[in-house]
Hints:
2 copies of one chain form a homodimer.
Chain A: E1 5-11, E2 24-30, E3 39-47, H1 51-55, E4 76-83, E5 93-96, E6 103-106, E7 112-113, H2 130-143, E8 150-154, H3 159-170, E9 174-179, H4 182-191, E10 196-199, H5 205-212, E11 217-222, H6 226-233, E12 236-244, H7 265-268, E13 272-275, H8 285-297, E14 305-309, H9 315-324, E15 330-334
Parallel strand pairs in A: 8-9, 8-11, 9-10, 11-12, 12-13, 14-15
Antiparallel strand pairs in A: 1-2, 3-4, 3-6, 3-15, 4-5, 5-7
Helix pairs in contact in A: 2-3
Amino acid sequence: MTENVNRQIRLAARPVGLPKDSDWDLVEESVPGPGPGEVLVRNRFLSVDPAMRGWMNDRKTYVPPLPLGAVMRALTVGEVIESENSDFAPGDPVAGLGGVQTFALGDGRDLQKIDLSLAPLPVWLDTLGIAGLTAYCGLLEVGEPKEGNTVLVSGAAGSVGAHVGQIAKIKGCRAVGIAGGSKKCSYLVEQLGFDAAIDYKDEKLSDGLKRACPDGIDIYFDNVGGDTLNTALARINVGARVVICGAISQYNATDIPSGPSAYINLLGRRSRMQGFIYFDYRSKWPAMQKDLAEWRTTGKISTEHDIAQGDVDIFPDTLLRLFRGDNFGKLMIELPV
Amino acid sequence: MTENVNRQIRLAARPVGLPKDSDWDLVEESVPGPGPGEVLVRNRFLSVDPAMRGWMNDRKTYVPPLPLGAVMRALTVGEVIESENSDFAPGDPVAGLGGVQTFALGDGRDLQKIDLSLAPLPVWLDTLGIAGLTAYCGLLEVGEPKEGNTVLVSGAAGSVGAHVGQIAKIKGCRAVGIAGGSKKCSYLVEQLGFDAAIDYKDEKLSDGLKRACPDGIDIYFDNVGGDTLNTALARINVGARVVICGAISQYNATDIPSGPSAYINLLGRRSRMQGFIYFDYRSKWPAMQKDLAEWRTTGKISTEHDIAQGDVDIFPDTLLRLFRGDNFGKLMIELPV
């Protein structure tokens, strides 16, 4: 190896509210070769996800908090460069938690060998990665859709939401999306085949729900939290499933957000609200990825990729685009080769 | 029939906050004999339940709102007096929705013939009625306890809560109750066999939960809502089940209560929060009642009855005792014979 300078973005401070430049350090270090059992991967694409904001807090969720000074956690796809692990060989394409850095050295436990005949590399961060798998697990494993159900999804033009609506259609449901702005809403209905969209910037959500969900809501897939969740809860049907996938509206909150007072409808309408993490379904991923690849190949799932080109130093600004909602499609960074 | 004057409590106005005297009318009318298919029941015991407050609002929940001028809805046990319905004969003991009145005339669809060899009449409003069945359905059908789980219940000294803790013990769980006052807390631990009790009037709930649930909460059975729910959600384990049975702290609220901001833990801890109504399990009641009767007979379930003696005119004051929390055990009214 000649080019073994590893550029890394490390967490310098715990952000309060939106992450600032001073919360990050750019560090360069040399990469040692792999020791016994280890694999060295060159990262090619970094996934930029809302969940990253939670990983930066000093609070255990489904993963330990990222220690100060550590390389920022990120989902990645790349290529094995050197391997002292019999499960991987140089040249293998892999997906994993490689972090915001050029090279990732590890024991291979977080790595999945991926099959590029199913889909090209960046799709493994989208439809066959976090976005598609999250939608698949949340809608099909937690939401349990039945044909004819009304499925409402917030953050619908986001990478997860777009998959949720399209999988809902595949399963014979009515798909309704909530998004901000007419461009996103047209995209949902005209490009992705949603039955209806609600532009929360243009219409009061409760009015939009009356219009777009005249028979109530059977499944609400929530990426947003806050008032959106509360307003949706007011319109759930008996036996509804509220799938808690995220709460992007409150990830950067510095005050305690108000909770959904309409949770009490879970009682009168005998409904459930359930959180999930797609990591828990890891043993089922290969089967899910096969379904997702087929739906993608046959045109039942289409997506947009919003790929920022640049080195790891563009990560801090790219992350902020998510919270401004000005990305369009799955946000990722393609590192220079 | 000679004594066919029916004394009734009718809903005169929709209460704002706690029900007032002027929200009720006492009416006397004569009872006609049953027409074809009808059954006339003399009510003997009236069940006084927190859910009654919700029935008085002009809002559909799991039952239609009670119309103004209608007899107050109530669960009752009594005796068939006259019958033109082949399913019932004079002398049959029955449970049903007889309302706050001396006699109930109906088509028999809400009536269950009851077996007094399993338990005497008032127990069919408690362990074999709303309290025991609600605990059974909520804990066993919704909560799905596993041996060794920590089961937390609020309103634990109430009729439902007391059953929840005892059924949790039968299923090999650790039972922890939240109640107000040392008398209720001693009762839980010393009489009912709870493993621990938290007196919310004496100890900050979050401190009490740390002490009494050192390994977190696997099932939280909520009768109370409000801050209690939110504080419990902060301490749930991965895979927890939060069973929403009631929200007595907010039934009389005139402002919109704040929702549980800690609902977001459902995500990180991959948990679910689910409401239920025991009416939905009606087809399973006979089997559940058999279990409950056996547990009662063998001393595994013990309860207290708080029986107010008097005519239907004591109902308004008796109902208020529930919301003051000064009843002890299942509250009911025994009508004079």
